Amino acid sequence: TWLYIIQISGLLLVCVLQFFNSMILGSLLISFNVSVLIARTIQKNLKKGGLLNRLGKLVLHVLLVLCLTLLINKFIKKILNLESDEHIFKFLKAKFGFGATRDFDANLYLCEEAFGLLPLNTFSRLSSTLLFYVYGFVLFLLTVAAVIVAFRNLSGSNQVHLKGKMEEYTVTLKPEAAYSLVHTVLFGCLALSTMRMKYLWTSHMCVFASFGLCSTEVWKLILKCLHLYTSQRV
């Protein structure tokens, strides 16, 4: 909750420092943060019930947040009479084949190579520095751990014989690691769809790969998988 409040406060401060830039108030990020806080207030018992019950609540929670985000954003734009970012949505609509547009700004983006798909030679250049190999390995390892932990959390199993394994996986997936994992996947999708956004992904790849190489928790999991684990080796 504090993270969402800090993000909203930061955006409002930017709005003031940019001489009350109304475009920031109409951004999806402010609407999203407000929507999450409202959804958290409405749905408090997401961790009760069995696997299917929890999955249903989770899907409902996501849909609620998305619908509230769009409604709040539309409401803010209606009140402030904002249309300054409409060309971005027109560009995205045309880019992903949901209809052509006659908007000048949107067509200008479509003609620009930087707003196209990420070229495949990017991966070979990232591999030449060994960054992509390390990143891919850490990403695979943490994704597997995340899937296992998420499934066990959603199933709500409290059995004693599962408790030890649960603890083993949660050690390798601390909250900050899970947060970075979600971020790097989203940045990757953004870079793949729009080449200009690779500056976010490549810098995050360096941080993420470094975390994997320097994390004792990751090495602990690797050694346990190879049946070579001792505290001295870690």
Automatic annotation (TrEMBL):
Query: Where is the chain membrane-spanning?
Result: 6-38, 58-76, 130-155
List the subcellular locations: Membrane
Question: How does the record classify its membrane topology?
Answer: Multi-pass membrane protein
Q: Which domain of life is it from?
A: Eukaryota
Q: Name one Pfam family in it.
A: Dpy19
Q: Which UniProt keywords apply?
A: Glycosyltransferase, Membrane, Transferase, Transmembrane, Transmembrane helix
User: What GO CC terms are in its UniProt record?
Assistant: nuclear inner membrane
Q: Which residues form the signal peptide?
A: none
The molecular function GO annotations come to: mannosyltransferase activity
Q: Which family does it belong to?
A: Belongs to the dpy-19 family.
Which PANTHER family does this UniProt record tie to the protein? C-MANNOSYLTRANSFERASE DPY19L3-RELATED (PTHR31488:SF4), DPY-19-LIKE 1, LIKE (H. SAPIENS) (PTHR31488)
Instruction: Identify this protein by name.
Output: D19L3 mannosyltransferase
Which species does this protein come from? Loxia curvirostra (Red crossbill)
